[in-house]
Design goal:
304 residues, 10 helices, 3-stranded parallel sheet
Length: 304
């Protein structure tokens, strides 16, 4: 097979760094793009600029701001997908479990389940999905990979706030302050997934699709894929794990068990658990790192 080339957008971010590393370790020629944190070998590319997207592809030869978010998740995705399609480049679009409503009793969601995002982020990622699916429907030169909340090594620049899981460590330490009470959600269920596991799956998916050369076989492959860890936690339960590892008390942490107000205009997702059936049908390894084990390693908390 010819030399394999990958362009990783957002390569300076929490997940992007691990995706970049997974492809690099597998022997691919990898180019990463970033924007505000781009430096060194990372290309600085404005994904809202079609000219910069085309320039990046040519080089490798291969919510507080709704308008800006739409430009990045929809407009940029459309330009990027069209540019990849014109060059016969396979595109893997990372999406979220928040494209589903997460209503009680509906999970786990197969990839083909009816969507129903309840927040702007989910709406915009779903709109990006539709762009990729429509543009690559007749070639299968693109696919969607939905993932849940992520954790992993964070950057020195952003620290724990780079991950919605890692940042709970800061909340736990805040709860150690005298007289401080930190309210923590103990209702909504999450499936924290390690970024390096997602990176491995991204690499395996890309290899599977580009290695399928017969058009009829490629067209039979699913456009929507999902990957998740299977361990389930509320935010409060994640803090319990951190406290256990570090030997910290939980007195300053208050479990908030209240669910949705049925009369509220916006309903929070309760459980957006994803089914990995499509990945398994392709023979993709969906195993995941044990949550507690990784955090014990990360925090250096091993019993002698």
């Amino acid at each position: 097979m010819a030399s394999k080339i990958a362009l990783i957008t957002g390569a300076t971010g929490l997940l992007g760094r691990e995706v970049f590393t997974a492809f690099e370790k597998a022997g691919w020629t990898v180019t990463g793009t970033g924007f505000s944190r781009a430096s060194g070998d990372i290309l600085k590319v404005d994904l809202t600029s079609e000219d910069e997207i085309n320039a990046a592809l040519q080089r490798v030869k291969v919510d507080s701001n709704p308008d800006g978010s739409r430009a990045l998740n929809v407009t940029a995705t459309e330009a990027f997908t069209k540019a990849c399609s014109a060059r016969n480049i396979f595109l893997l679009y990372i999406s979220t479990d928040y494209v589903f409503s997460g209503k009680e009793g509906q999970a786990p969601y197969p990839a083909t389940a009816e969507t129903g995002p309840t927040n702007l982020y989910g709406e915009l990622k779903l709109a990006g999905e539709e762009v990729v699916v429509n543009e690559t429907a007749h070639s299968r030169n693109g696919a969607i990979l939905r993932v849940p909340v992520l954790y992993g090594p964070v950057s020195d620049q952003l620290g724990n706030k780079e991950s919605a899981v890692n940042v709970l460590m800061d909340q736990l330490w805040m709860a150690q302050e005298k007289g401080k009470i930190v309210k923590m959600d103990d209702w909504s269920i999450r499936y924290p997934t390690l970024t390096s596991d997602v990176g491995r799956v991204c690499k395996d998916v890309c290899l599977k699709y580009i290695s399928t050369e017969k058009q009829e076989e490629r067209l039979a492959m699913p456009q929507k894929l999902q990957f998740t860890a299977e361990e389930r936690f509320t935010k409060y339960e994640i803090c319990q794990v951190f406290a256990e590892i570090l030997g910290l008390p939980l007195a300053g942490l208050m479990a908030h068990k209240q669910g949705n107000d049925p009369n509220a205009a916006v309903q929070r997702p309760y459980d957006c658990h994803l089914s990995t059936g499509e990945l398994q049908s392709l023979g993709i390894d969906v195993s995941c790192q044990d949550f507690r084990t990784w955090w014990r390693w990360r925090l250096g908390a091993f019993k002698k």
